[in-house]
Amino acid sequence: MIKAFAAFEPKGELKPFEYDPGSLHPNEVEIDVQYCGLCHSYRIVLQR
Fold this sequence. Notes:
The protein is of the alpha+beta class. The protein has one domain (about 1-20, about 30-45). It starts with a strand and ends with a helix. The chain is about 15% helix and about 20% strand. A two-stranded antiparallel ribbon has the order 1-2.
């Protein structure tokens, strides 16, 4: 299960979002990300 935050509309508030990406294909790998930051440029995109 992927846990993330998403804006569901332009200028929308970021809200928790979960989805199941399904099974991995033979040529794919799964990466366990422990921490992630939010780039300044993404904040600008959310304000549009």
